[in-house]
TrEMBL record:
Residues 14-413 form the Glycosyl hydrolase family 13 catalytic domain. Keywords: Glycosidase, Hydrolase, Signal. The keyword Hydrolase applies. It comes from the Bacteria. Belongs to the glycosyl hydrolase 13 family. This is Alpha-glucosidase. InterPro entries: GH (IPR017853), GH13_cat_dom (IPR006047), Glyco_hydro_b (IPR013780), O16G_dom_2 (IPR045857), SusG-like_C (IPR056300).
Amino acid sequence: KIDGQWWKEGVVYQIYPRSFKDSDGDGIGDLGGIIEKLDYLQSLGIDIVWLNPIYSSPNDDNGYDISDYRAIMDEFGTMEEFDTLLKGMHERGIKLVMDLVVNHSSDEHTWFQESKSSRDNPYRDYYHWWEAEKGKPTPRYSFFDVNNDAWKYDSTTNAYYLHYFSRKQPDLNWENPKVRQEVYDIMKYWLDKGIDGFRMDAFQYVSKDTTFPAFPEGYEKNIIEYYGMGPHLHDYLREMNREVISKYDIMTVAEGAGSTFEDAISLVAPERKELDMVYHFEGMDIGNDLDGYDLLDFKDVYTRWDSAMEDKGWVSIFLANHDVPRMVSKFGNDSPEFRAASSKMLTTFILSMRGTPYYYYGDELGMTNIDFDQISDYKDIAALNGYQNALKEGKDLSRYMKKLNFLSRDNARTPMQWNASKNAGFSNGEPWIAVNPNYKSINVENQENDPQSCLNYFRKMVQLRKDHPVLVYGDYQLLWPKNKKVYAYTRTLDQEKLLVLLNFSTTPSQLQLPKSIVLKKELINNLENKNLHQSKLTLAPYQALIFSIQ
Ligand code: TEU
């Protein structure tokens, strides 16, 4: 089972460059800032950095609207700095994975400028156009548009263009072979620089039925079913694999995984030669209600995915990214009493499951959601347009604001908390988004000096995964499936067997171990001085333990 693939064994650390470290005082994180923190990255023990988009962009969606795929965003720095960064990472044994955002470009990309200029422009078919004389286009849902209308009328040529995301993110027409060649060239450009892979943004949506058939009423509630896994997706992936991916030693991650296990497997089954691993959203669909979530649902998702993928494909394991709330606020408990313990408990989970762990910047400190209450506090287009929409439709605004407070993507985009000085040591200027006021106590500097900190626990847990290949490759077996407070499982590889115990609750939980489990050694414990007894164990609130067992 051990196949030595680096992208299975590595720990991924995700950096949202806008918010990591500002080196030039303009309030926006940049490449120079990441370069300053290279030694910090190395000190974490992580193996791979996934960097959100750094390409030229008018920033309608913070870099997910790209106007030049071969240039660096002005605010982020220069290509020379990029080269320095990549070299600095490689020197420290860290690989770099970049975002590939090619379901859409920016409307400010020259391709689109050309495309919209006339109906017979050579770039016309780089995008999806619907000529107005055919009447209104078949409805399509936009994730970000104020009206959720994915067709935007453009008078220049009396036609509508398609945009699944914002109107400044027109969808590229993958059915056009020229578009695909452009993408392959872009990929080669970065791979030849030496980067180590791509996270393929919204990739499941690229192939479209260009007859644009009508979808049934309410289809947008199951959007992935209708938008995902389009008619030629696999053809394009195989072509891409043949022309680009197979020529490099890289990792490729599909963001989104269709709507069934069969879809997911079809994207990453090794013999199909398409992509390496899926990044499915099912874990993120839990806990979006304001009144918490049921641990049984949580266990169920991860257990079903593990058994579905078992020998057939590889998954990403994560509890946060730049599109969702902070993990400790959503899945743990961010009250002062339990924040650190629950954050370490979740860290234990991410790093002890089968699949490649993706860890989001700041989570190593137990950074929390920020408590925004005014719509003017928000920066994210999804929040701002959603608010306009709620206003227009006469929705309950106070409920909308509550949901935003909890779920907004901006929660996870606040500046990294480096120290207790002004702006958390993120920037000398005015940060582009508010710093979480809790930075005075929650920051890297404080935690460096505390052996019990979340930060040092993360390092320990990363090391534990390195020392025990069973945590990467071992079989996963759920224990006590009906226990509503404790998530427990074993990992087994040949002779080595580990037991993972995670108390997801605010109260102590007693466990009666079956006779077949004999504890050998405690490998990690997120709380100090808790007495443990063989066979009858009491887990303290949010306690996490890993034992080697017989
Ligand atoms: O997000 C894509 C994404 O989240 C959708 O594919 C998802 O299916 C949809 O929102 C339903 O939940 C990526 C980036 O992560 C995000 O930051 C960008 O805004 C987006 O693509 C557009 O590029």
